[in-house]
């Protein structure tokens, strides 16, 4: 068998913080001019939301959203009567499919919510599926540790260090792995061949091997590191004399061979289908019937802290 080769770094860039509405700050990396439609990924937001803010009633069609709470707790509610709360360490996989209208709001405990939200495109033949949710609680996430104890990984989706994740969380095949590497630690992570992959750094400084013939690249927090599609694995390490561990995510997904035409929360494969999505939402039809005159309870909190 051929020797596995590390992926080279295509480029890396800082996800700059920007204001989003009132009371929300977002570091967006996927979905910016630097990294647009990195199939199957549409957007990655690292958000920090004031308890008086949030994301009141809004629609989606044609994509899946994966939300990972890093701090605080967030409520959700939709037009089908689904309600729930995710806490720090929990995830929610939401499939918009043919149409959904929902709200996502901070729990009213006076604390900001911090987390990541990843938008993943749906294969064209699944864009008209019924909307659904899959919650993954922190206690359910398998973890793995290297023999020396210097690397731990939460296997949210995919496989790492011989440990498999739970199955059937999203329709589009995606791996999401959260690593913490202590000073002096290193890890080699295999990835499915041909999948697109990137890393997002949260804490500390992590060095990624840059292919086979270039020096490793040290990356500080809040950067998106985009890897070349060629290669079998990603190698990451933290210097022995580092003052703190590094925390980062490795995310990979199966590319979709289809057009991406997006208008805000509607993701389709043609301009005509985007127009149709707008008409369907405005007329409460073809998947948006339950949006007519619907208002969430939690969306009314906007601008108010109890």
Automatic annotation (TrEMBL):
Pirin C-terminal domain residues: 177-286
Chain sites annotated for binding Fe cation: 58, 60, 102, 104
Record keywords, A-Z: Iron, Metal-binding
Residue ranges of every copy of the Pirin N-terminal domain listed in the record: 24-120
GO terms assigned for molecular function: metal ion binding
UniProt superkingdom: Eukaryota
Cofactor(s) it depends on: Fe cation
Signal peptide, first to last residue: none
Pfam families: Pirin, Pirin_C
Cofactor info, note text: Binds 1 Fe cation per subunit.
Protein family according to the UniProt entry: Belongs to the pirin family.
PANTHER family, alphabetized: PIRIN (PTHR13903:SF8), PIRIN-RELATED (PTHR13903)
Protein's recorded name: Pirin
């Amino acid at each position: 068998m051929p020797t596995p080769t590390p992926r080279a770094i295509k480029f890396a860039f800082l996800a700059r913080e920007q204001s989003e509405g009132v009371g929300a700050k977002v570091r967006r990396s996927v979905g910016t001019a630097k990294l647009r439609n990195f199939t199957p990924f549409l957007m990655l937001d690292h958000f920090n939301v004031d308890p008086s803010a949030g994301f009141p009633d809004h629609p989606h069609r044609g994509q899946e959203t994966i939300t990972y709470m890093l701090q605080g707790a967030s409520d959700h509610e939709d037009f089908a009567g689904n309600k729930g709360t995710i806490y720090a360490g929990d995830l929610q996989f939401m499939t918009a499919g043919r149409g959904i209208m929902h709200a996502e709001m901070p729990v009213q405990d006076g604390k900001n919510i911090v987390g990541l939200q990843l938008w993943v495109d749906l294969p064209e033949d699944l864009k008209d599926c019924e909307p659904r949710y899959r919650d993954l609680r922190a206690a359910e996430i398998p973890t793995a540790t290297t023999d020396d104890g210097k690397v731990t990984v939460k296997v949210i989706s995919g496989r790492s260090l011989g440990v498999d994740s739970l199955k059937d969380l999203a329709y589009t095949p995606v791996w999401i792995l959260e690593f913490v590497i202590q000073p002096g630690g290193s890890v080699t992570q295999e990835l499915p061949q041909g999948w697109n992959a990137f890393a997002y750094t949260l804490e500390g400084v992590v060095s990624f091997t840059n292919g086979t013939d270039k020096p490793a690249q040290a990356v500080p927090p809040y950067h998106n590191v985009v890897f070349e599609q060629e290669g079998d694995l990603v190698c990451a390490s933290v210097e022995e004399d580092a003052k703190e561990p590094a925390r980062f995510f490795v995310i990979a997904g199966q590319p979709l061979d289809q057009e991406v035409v997006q208008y805000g929360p509607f993701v389709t494969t043609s301009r005509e289908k985007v127009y149709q999505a707008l008409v369907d939402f405005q007329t409460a039809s073809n998947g948006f019937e339950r949006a007519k005159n619907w208002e969430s309870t939690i969306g009314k909190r906007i601008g108010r802290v109890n």
